[in-house]
Each structure stands twice: as structure tokens, then as C-alpha cells.
Specification:
This protein is an alpha+beta fold. The protein has five domains: 7-154; 158-230, no CATH class; 260-330, no CATH class; 396-475, Single Sheet (Resuscitation-promoting factor rpfb fold), CATH 2.20.230; 476-606, Glucose Permease (Domain IIA), CATH 2.70.70.10. The protein has ten helices and 28 strands. β10 and β11 (371-372) form a beta hairpin. It is elongated. It starts with 6 loop residues before the first helix and ends in a 9-residue tail after the last strand. The relative contact order is 0.06.
Length: 611
Amino acid sequence: MSLHPNASEKKQTENATGLNKKNISFESAMVNVGSLVTYLAAAAVRRTISVMKRAAAGIGNGAVPLVRKLAVSSAKHFRKLGNNFSVSAKRFSGWCGKFAGRMAEVGFGKAVVLQLSDIAAALKGSKKFAKTVVNYTVPVVSIAFLVCVVADKASADYGVTVEYNGQEIGVVSEESVINEAQKVIADRATYYDTESETYITAMLSLKPLGAQDEVIDEQMLADALQEQIETQVTEEPAENEVSVSKVSAPSIGDENVYKERAYVVTVNGEVIGAVKENNEISNFLEIKKSEYLEGEVVSVSFDKDIEYTYEQFVDPSIIVDQQEIIDTFTSIVSEPVYYEVQKGDNPWNIAVDNGMTTEELKDCFITFDGEKIDDITEYCPIGAVVQLSEEVPYLQVLTTKEVVYNEAIDYEIIKTKDPDMYKGDSAVDVKGVEGEKKVTALVTYKGDTPVSKEVIDEVVLSEPVAKEMRVGTRETITPVSEGSGGSGEYFWPVDGGYISAYQGDGRGHKGIDIAAPYGTPIYAAESGTVIESSKGWNGGYGNWIRIEHSDGNVTVYAHQSSLAVSYGDYVVKGQLIGYVGSTGDSYGNHLHFEVRSYGTYLNPTDYVSQY
């Protein structure tokens, strides 16, 4: 961009200069007229005072007859003067009214011309009348001109002219606009090899705004300044040339480093390169999105925040080909993947499902409720989060779909204390019924995995019915757990733990094994009577307890380290009955738990659930 004006621009500049000179000459003439009128008025006042002084002196020195004669003559003269002034005043009032009407109709300039024409016509008819008109009109017109000039200048709008590097950039309303433009330029002119800020120094001047002047805002001013800065970026130096080009406008210290303008590409705020053009990158991303815009898909985005549309001056070393950026987007990387332990999981199946050994699983970073788990084979609660790793695309597509589904509404549980029932026992008087609602939600998926959900509408299809039950408060032999007991029909029989072996599992396993540390409390899964409580080998069961329940089922608790109840005791659901151990045919601390019904081994997972 050249800073030298062409012939047309030069002519426009000369015309504007001539017009400005004419305006200045006219304004000066009007000011001179006003000064002349003021001078004449002051001279008239001084002359009147002088006459009055001489009259006073004559009165003091003259004879009484002279005074009388003068008084009579003066009285006649003033009466005549008064009559003449009254007539003149009426004429002048009419003249002023006529002038005001003309000024409102045709403007000040034309009104003056018309009034002067009337005066000229009157002069031809009466010299006396002309003299009167001249005596009154000239001062009034001159004063009117002076008032108009002063009022015009007082009401004129002023602006701040911004000049940079010898060029007038534009006119702004106030100096604060320049400060805002400075911020815009500072944001644009980012240099990646310096932490210094960018400042623009401009010359400022105050000028009255004319019709040809356009007031610009901070964005327009920043654009204009930016153009001036760009014109100072010289060509890249030739080979072996000592001096190098630089952007001289931003005073950012010693910036003797060549800069090129390019599109800086950032991913999640991190610069991955810069490109001269961004059309191939833009097309690639749009095509990638279009591949997923089908069916129920509402919108498509990416799992990373990509910016590539903002131009900067950058070090040439970071400028790459667009294809290199696209190759980065399509590359495969290794990043953390998280797995949440579900109902029925154990360390062995988690390891197998993810292609690793249990030892490798133990080395993973695992947390539960914000606390780190050191050994998942010892403690594997539902809801624990295991950080795995797998290879995934660098840039993954997120699809948002509108999904409609029905969801259960939990019912309220109303409990009433019953002193006639043992603590831990309960009876349901009104069975709870879940409600149901229709939910419309926007679900965002990464691949096939939902990663977020935004509910946009809910319609209740049926209201829930509260569950009413009585709970016992009568004390038992041993403490009763106040835990939730899980969501199964029976109480979860261990304070924590996880299922380490299921029924069957290829070896005729008759129950489930719940792994837990040595000495962990064991609770009765359901209220009933203890029909066996013995220590020893007991056919490999070790220290064990059997409890018979009112539904005809019998629960078995084996391999205990010690027992807390005896044969014949009545226990309630959740009551302490023993402690985890590894007695009998056992290889590690755990509870072997069975549910039997008249000689048949039922699946315990149909009756108990940890959560």
C-alpha cells in the first residue's frame, strides 16, 4: 500500500484546502464587522456623554432667562422627538417582524438581500426616511451578523484528528477512542517471541467538524492504523544482507526479527503451527462434520477447540503447509480413557475386557469418591473410576442428537417406628410404585459413548406412590447395620467388599464370594433364626452360620474368622453375625454366601446387591 496520493486525491485535497481558506476568510470578515459595530456603538455613547456635560456647564453659567427659554425649547423639542421616535419605533417593529418572517422562510442571507432592496426603494422616495433606516438598520444587521457568527462557532462540534507517521488517519469523537483502538491493535499484533506489549504513538489535534468530516470508531481507527503499520513491513532481506526488516510502528523493544503475516492455528489454546492460507483446513473440517449430519443428529462439533481464522504477524519458522495441520488432525494418539466399575464387575473381568492382566490393572490410577484405591483386587466398589489408556484419533467428532425416552420417578419411603419389632426388621404396609415421565434431551456422543446430556423437556406420565413401612426399634443381641443394605431384596451381607466369584463360574460354585479385608463385619441378609453356628472345618466351609427365614430360604455365611451369634438366636436383617476370614477351604479373606431353598441353591445375586 503506497502512502503517496494520486492526482485525484491531490486535487481533492487542494479543493478541500481552498474551501477551508474561504470559510476562514468569511469568518474573519464577520468578526471584523462585529468589531466595527462595537466600536461605533462605543463612540456614540462617548459623544452623548460629552454633549450632556456641555449642556450641564451651560446651565450652570447662563442666566435664568436663558434657562427658561432653553426649558421651553427643550420641552417642545422632546415632545416632537418623542412623537417621531414613536412613529419610528412602530416602523422599525414592523420592519423587524418582516425581516424575521423572511429569514424563517428563505434563510438569513436571502432575507438580508430582500430587506436591503426595500431600503433602497425607500431611499428613492424619501431621503429622511432613508437616513432613519440607515441609522437603525446598519447597527442591527451588523449585530445580527456578529451574533450568528458567535453562535455558529459556539455550537460547532469538535473532533480529535489522529495523525500517524505523517498521515492523517481520521477523526474521532474523543481521545478515549484512541485508547480502545490501541487495545485492538495490541490484540492483533501478537508476537510469539516476545512478552512485550505493543504501543502506537500518534499525533493528536483539535478541529471543528465540517460536513465533509466523518467521525470513526475504535475498530475503524484500528484498521486504518493497521494499514499504516503494514506499509512499514519491508521486503525480506536478500541473502548475505546484514540489516533485516522489521515492523517499526510497534515499539516492542529491539524487534530486529523478520515477521510474516499468517493464520495461527491453535488447538485448545496451544499453537500447533501457522499457515499462509486456511481454505484447505476449513474445507477439511466442514467435510468431516458433514459425514455425521444425518438422521437424528442435531449438530456436529469436535472434542477440541480449534481456531484458525485470526491473522497475526509470526516468526516464519512456525509457518507450515496446510496439509501438515490436516495430518495432525487425522493422526492417532494415546490419551487417557476412563472406566467406571459397574454392578457385577470384578478386577478379573475388568482386566480381561481391557486386554490386560490384573497386575497391570493394579498399576492403573483408580479412585472412588475422590480417594485413591491402591489395590483394586482388595477393594473394588461399584462406581470406582479406573484410568485406562488407548489409541484414539487426535480429533474426535462429537454428535448431538435429540433423544426421547421414558424414565422412572422414584417413590418416597415413609417409615414409622414400631417398638414391638426388632431393630433391623421392617414391614411394608403400602407397596411403593415408581412413577414415569417422558424425557426429551439433547445427548452428545463421542463415537458411541454419551459424554453429556441436556434435558430440554419433561412430561409426567404417572405420579409415584409412596412406600409406607414400619421399622423395628427393639434392641437385638448384636448391633444392626445402619447402612443402606443395597438395592436387593436381602441386605448386602458385608460392610463393603465386592463380588470376586459368581455362582457356577465353571467349577460348580454354589454361591458367591465377597472379597473384603480380614475382620470386616458380616450382617444377616434377612431376619430369621440361627439354625447352625459352628467353628472348624465343616466340610470346607470353615467357621460358618446358617439362618432360616420366614420365606423358607436359608442363607449361609462361610469362612468367617469369628462368629457373633449362637444357635437358636433370632437375628434381624442387617444385624452383626460375624467377621470376614479365611477358614476352611479358602485362599484369601472373603465371605462365601449362599441362598438355599429346600435343597436348591439359588443365585444370590437375585437377592442381594451392593448398591
